């Protein structure tokens, strides 16, 4: 039997809700940011109504995991404003793209969407490398330290060089050579939000030696532009966000 998340019977509900921005959302994940960080950021900058739901200790494997499509989180549950329609989505990348299309963060044209997708893919690749070589090496501290040196020496500077260049060369920027805080056009996009998350992780990991206003003004402008959004500031001021940030630091080494 097809999993309920993938049931074609839900197509009409998805098609109806796809363009609705007044829905309510539940982000199902463990009690930290992790793979749900960008999802919550999208919802926060959009001013959407959402709650974070984490399985109680000891209940994930026996009670919840068997019922998820792939045995992993995050999952997103969306309910229409009138409560009559409910849809569920799994996998962080799919959720991020669904929400970004809903709230207008995938560009205004097919070309802009392609540009955004390319920058998102590049940022995701950098994040995957960080997770594999550094964040996931919690049990092998010697290897983690060695990998960190390699990342700082080559991988991270390469990512910085390319992204600083592309941000600085955004044709829509009218503020000189340091870009306008966006990868594509003059509007917030998923690429900006992925970079915002990545920059924060890198600064927690290596400090300000490689990413700072003097060396990387265009990258810093992305971070500052996202951080200035009032609804994101409000979310980050909540006790829920602060508690997840602390658990994130304890588990993964960054906020």
Automatic annotation (TrEMBL):
Supply the source organism for this entry: Entomortierella parvispora
Q: List the protein's name.
A: Glutathione S-transferase
Q: Which domain of life is it from?
A: Eukaryota
The taxonomic lineage of its organism, from the top, reads:
Eukaryota, Fungi, Fungi incertae sedis, Mucoromycota, Mortierellomycotina
Mind listing the GO biological process terms from this record?
glutathione metabolic process
Domain GST N-terminal stretches: 23-107
Give the PANTHER family listed for this entry. GLUTATHIONE S-TRANSFERASE
List the Pfam families.
Answer: GST_C_3
Where would I find the GST C-terminal domain in this sequence?
A: 109-254
The record's GO molecular-function terms, alphabetically, read: glutathione transferase activity
